[in-house]
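[Discussion] Sanity-checking designs against the backbone

I'm trying to build intuition for which residues belong where. Below is a structure token string of 205 positions. I'd appreciate it if someone posts a full sequence so I can compare it with mine line by line.
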């Protein structure tokens, strides 16, 4: 299954889980406080669809660039589950530094700030993706291509990472016990999106 197919297949999943979250928040009795506002959610979803279009266009430049750089790879990385596992960890490491840098460098913050522009924190907020961050984040992933990882594998792992990030944008999930010590969770990422001074620029991944 290609990256485009994975993206398209995810659309009904996103919309369905957003509807489920709305129901859960309303039944919990605090939907009006931390739930959804129609205009805000519509803006996030529209930006998400725009992101898919821009992402497809950006790949027209990124794919040839990655394939060109892959010619100069340091190693011939074999295919197999171990390679996928290693790439998943390395890509997440690169994502952390890309995300952190987008919060600390003003030029990059300009590409990322729209993701933090919602007045609400819910699954629709996760779809409020930057249309330019493909390019500003690109240098952080080039080392993986030069190490020898297949660009197609990298694109798929990036997409899986993006799907995971989607799931942490919710207030409907409380702390998850021991899972909190190893993985980024909704409670961790709620702190990241907080506007309180002590929470700003925390928990980048």
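Best answer:
Here's mine. Compare freely.
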């Amino acid at each position: 299954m290609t990256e485009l197919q994975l993206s398209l297949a995810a659309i009904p999943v996103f919309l369905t889980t957003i509807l489920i979250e709305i129901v859960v928040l309303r039944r919990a009795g605090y939907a009006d406080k931390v739930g959804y506002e129609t205009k805000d959610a519509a803006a996030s979803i529209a930006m998400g669809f725009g992101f898919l279009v821009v992402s497809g266009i950006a790949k027209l430049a990124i794919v040839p660039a990655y394939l060109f750089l892959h010619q100069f790879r340091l190693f011939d990385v074999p295919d197999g589950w171990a390679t996928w596992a290693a790439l998943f960890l390395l890509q997440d490491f690169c994502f952390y530094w890309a995300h952190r840098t987008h919060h600390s460098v003003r030029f990059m913050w300009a590409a990322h700030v729209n993701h933090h522009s919602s007045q609400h924190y819910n699954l629709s907020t996760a779809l409020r993706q930057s249309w330019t961050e493909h390019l500003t984040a690109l240098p952080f992933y080039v080392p993986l291509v030069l190490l020898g990882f297949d660009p197609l594998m990298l694109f798929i792992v990036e997409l899986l990472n993006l799907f995971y990030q989607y799931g942490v944008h919710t207030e409907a999930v409380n702390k998850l016990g021991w899972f909190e010590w190893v993985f980024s969770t909704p409670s961790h990422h709620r702190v990241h999106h907080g506007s309180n001074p002590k929470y700003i620029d925390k928990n980048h991944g």
